[in-house]
Amino acid sequence: MGLSRFFLLALLSLQILAEDPPESPSQSPALSVQISTSFPSSEIFGIKLVNAVPTLAVLSITNDEPSPINVVFIGGSLWTLPDTPSSPPTPQIIRNLTTTRYKDITIPAGEKESVEYRFATELQPQDLLLNLAAVVTDENGEAYTIAAFNETVAVVERDTSIFDPQIIFLYLFLLALFAGTIYFIYSTWIATLFPQTKKRSSTSSAAGGKDASRARASTKGNRKVDPGEQIGVAGTDGAPAVVSASGAKAYDESWIPEGHLQRPGAKRVKSGAAGAGRKRG
After folding, report:
1. Distance (Å, rounded) from C-alpha 111 to C-alpha 61?
2. I want to staple 31 with a disulfide (CB 3.0 to 4.6 A). Which of 26, 144, 256, 271 is the partner?
3. Is 46 left (phi over 0), alpha (psi -120 to 50) or beta?
4. Using one digit for the tens of pLDDT, what is the confidence trace for 29-54?
5. DSSP string of the chain, one letter each residue
6. For the sheet containing 112-119, what is the strand order?
7. Contact 91, 77 (CB under 8 A)
8. Pairing of strands 48-50, 143-156
9. CA distances, 13 to each of 72, 116, 143 (Å)
10. pLDDT bracket for residue 178 (50, 70, 90)
11. pLDDT digit string, tens, across residues 205-225
């Protein structure tokens, strides 16, 4: 019960410090403790709080008391600047920062200890007043609130890069969405305007290709014949065949079956069979 009451008193002291307009940090009149704060990631041009990126603050606490002290809480808040034209005449609180509880951090008398405090912001880019405070207890368990930092900081946006994994994933997602939309439009409306022609069967195409190649071969090996050099010759079936004067035929025999090219021989009749026929007659 007593421990819960102590924590409530410590949080209440931080809340009171956050609600009151911040002043320049100074030593606590009841406790000889000094705190200096540094920001390892700060730049030459000042302290910048990057949105969505945790900011590290290192509090160097010096105990000038004759007895050890304990660090219990560290918290802070962001305030408007009184000197800016758009700000109210008195500082107004913008955001309370995360209050971090610490265990087993004891600073002996005359010693110095560094304590890390991290916080993050999500605000519009602007200049604000950062106020940090620490709650410490003495050997009797009495809590004290000590101001640790009270200076102007700049809230900025995070730098974006094309090699950022989130940006790359966003680009890929938008590209896939665009490609899918184009394909849907093409298959739904454009493809219906251009009907596909029916393909011929493979057998007819193969036969047509064979006939075309045979025709090219036949016309390639023949020469033109002068009509005056052509003479009429009776073919094997009685039809006239065209032959040139030099003996070269004016047509390609490869197109004619072999059975039609061979002349049938005359059938011979035996003399005995013929004489018997005459006697009977």
Report:
1. 9
2. 144
3. left
4. 578 999 999 999 887 778 999 998 99
5. -HHHHHHHHHHHHHHHHHHSPP-----BTTB-EEEEEE-TT-BTTB-EEETTSPEEEEEEEEE-SSS-EEEEEEEEEEE--TTSTTS-SS--EEEEPPPEE--S-EE-TT-EEEEEEEE-----SEEEEEEEEEEEE-TT--EEEEEEEEEEEEEEPPPP-TT-HHHHHHHHHHHHHHHHHHHHHIIIIIGGGSPPPPPPPHHHHHHHHHHHHHHHHHHHH-----GGGEEEEE-TTSSEEEEETTS-BSS-GGGS-HHHHSPPPPPP--HHHHHHHHHH-
6. 33-38, 55-63, 112-119
7. no
8. parallel
9. 12, 20, 9
10. very high
11. 555 555 556 555 555 555 555
Q: For residue 194, which amino acid is it? A: F
Q: How many residues does the chain have?
A: 281
Structure tokens at 163: 């090699």
pLDDT at 157 > cutoff 80: yes
pLDDT band at 102 (very low <50, low <70, confident <90, very high): very high
Q: Which two tokens stand for residue 12?
A: 């209440």
Nearest by Cα to 73 from 22, 117, 111, 108: 117
d(CA 254, CA 218): 8
Structure tokens at 170: 């966003």
Q: Which two tokens stand for residue 21?
A: 């307009």
Query: What distance lies between CA 159 and its chain's CA centroid?
Result: 19
The long-range contacts involving 210-219, CB below 8 angstroms and separated by at least 24 positions, are 214/254, 214/255, 218/252, 218/254, 218/255
